[in-house]
Amino acid sequence: MSLRRTPLHALHKELGGRLVPFAGWEMPVQFGGVVSEHLAVRRQAGLFDVSHMGELRVTGPDALPLLQRLTPNDVSRLVPGRAQYSALTTDSGGFVDDIVVYRRGEESFLVVTNAANTARDLAWIRERGGTAAECVEDLSDETALLALQGPRSQAILQTLTDLDLATIRYYRFAEGEVAGVPGTVARMGYTGEDGFEIMVPADRAEGLARRLLDAGSPEGLVSTGLGARDTLRLEAKMALHGNDIDEDHSVEEADLGWIVKPDKGDFIGRDVLVVQREHGVTRKLVGFELRDRGVPRHGYPIVVNGEPFGEVTSGGHAPFLKKSLGLAYLPADACEPGQAFEVVIRGRPVPAEVVPTPFYVRPGKKKKKKKKRAAAAAV
Q1: What's the pTM value of the predicted model, to 2 decimals?
Q2: What distance in Å separates the CA atoms of residue 76 and residue 138, rounded to the nearest whole number?
Q3: Cα(38)–Cα(230) distance, integer angstroms
């Protein structure tokens, strides 16, 4: 089966990107090196091609009721120009996919899906939405998505647009032109840094990427691949579908209960998630650091109190923090910071410890205090 290519494929090759298969696409994993790209995003800025992500347009009088039924977050709280992180949930409260929902108008929405899941998500929406899902249209092939991330992002982007970027707050967006290209500019990202995601017509993406790189070069902007995107999102404890979240783990277990709004009314998986919220879960996704030499990788076994319990869902060496850290599901009574357990690396048990997350918080941003919920096993 041939790999799909984004509109920036030729530019990636020109810039020396190392191209690898990813979710059915041929994508750059790195340009100058994962560590140098990671540090550039933390200190200056990086430009990512995320055009492999899917875009579904949902319009008409059935749009809001459909999204309310399919997702746990409250779409009715959105006003035009705002977006929210959410999910398509299963009957058991697990993840079909994690998504971002944009509200463009009273009856106009856009759903951004993960690359490998777009066709599956669309089939799920049509299956569970019935006739209401006739209002859903796949715009993925005609849309490109660029992510400009890092502390210099606003300064770089502002030179190419008349939009007042300072007024676009987190998870807000505006329609306008960037370097003469019409598109949508949203303040969000998957790195833990300030930044923007820019959605434009696919046939205008390469020209825009070149303009961004030219404008950002004096500010230290670099082309950035999927390798750094993964290490950046891990430091920020942003979940990866297929690793940290999937159909077998519920939204509450994944420590993402803040996107669940039971009071909005019925939605797929609501009953299970309400019970878990009221009575607690048996396992939970936590962050950890190794307390000895080694690097925890996805799939490495975990031992809690001498007994095997799952595996590392995401892990690696954090280039900015200079630590070996990861994510894993642990028993509910072993999730508090300071809890000790072991990660088995090449047959050797290595001490690890649960730590508060996110591991990295950008300068000037305060950590949100989490509301304590019951952690006891559901009964």
Answers
A1: 0.95
A2: 22
A3: 9
Token pair 């298969």 in the structure block, residue: 21
Phi, psi of 62 (to 5 degrees): -90, -5
The DSSP-derived string for 280-307 is --SEEEEEEEESSS----TT-EEEETTE
How many Å apart are CA 27 and CA 33, to the nearest integer?
A: 15
Which tens digits make up the pLDDT trace of 79-137? 999 999 999 999 999 999 999 999 999 999 999 999 999 999 999 999 999 999 999 99
Region at 339 (left for phi over 0; alpha for psi -120 to 50; beta for the rest): beta
Query: Which residue, among 194, 186, 202, 165, has the nearest Cα to 104 in the 3D structure?
Result: 186
Peptide bond into 358 cis (omega under 30): yes
SS3 237: coil
How many CB atoms neighbour CB 293 within 10 A?
A: 9
Q: Residue 246 is which amino acid?
A: D
Match domain 54-141 to its CATH number in 3.30.70.1400, 1.10.150.20, 3.40.640.10, 3.30.70.120: 3.30.70.1400
pLDDT in tens, 9-44: 999 999 999 999 999 999 999 999 999 999 999 999
CATH number of 280-355: 2.40.30.110
Residue reference for tokens 């971002």:
100
How would you classify the pairing of strands 108-113 and 173-178? unpaired
